[in-house]
Write a structure and sequence with these properties.
Blueprint lengths: L8 E3 L2 E2 L6 E5 L5 H14 L4 E6 L6 E9 L2 E9 L3 E2 L9 E2 H5 L1
Parallel strand pairs: 3-4
Antiparallel strand pairs: 1-2, 4-5, 5-6, 7-8
Length: about 100
């Protein structure tokens, strides 16, 4: 999770969704459905601006960046496989290397 320093915590190790700028998940064999279907909808409904899904189990392995959250989920997504860049929108101003995230 990426959040501003002044984000309001809801517990010692928790943050309210509206305080997060980006949430990242790595898909595991036992969390496929939850990470691919349930979490994008829940994070979008919670107002999390960006959801980064690292999916080594996909064919081919891919990194997906969901953005533009709304009541029905994220309206936009960028997909990158190894060798393709992924560019999160502002405030990040960086380029992510999908190969490094999938490695």
């Amino acid at each position: 999770m990426v959040a501003p320093r002044d984000a309001s915590p809801s517990g010692d190790f928790e943050l309210l969704s509206y305080g997060a700028l980006l949430v990242a998940e790595v898909v595991s064999p036992w969390s496929r459905r939850r990470d691919r279907q349930q979490k994008p909808r829940a994070y979008a409904e919670g107002g999390v601006p960006l959801y980064l899904l690292i999916d080594r189990l996909d064919k081919p392995p891919a990194v997906t960046l969901f953005s533009q959250p709304g009541e029905d989920g994220y309206r936009k997504r960028q997909v990158a496989t190894a060798g393709q860049p992924l560019r999160p929108p502002k405030p990040f101003g960086i380029t992510l290397d999908a190969a490094r995230l999938l490695g």
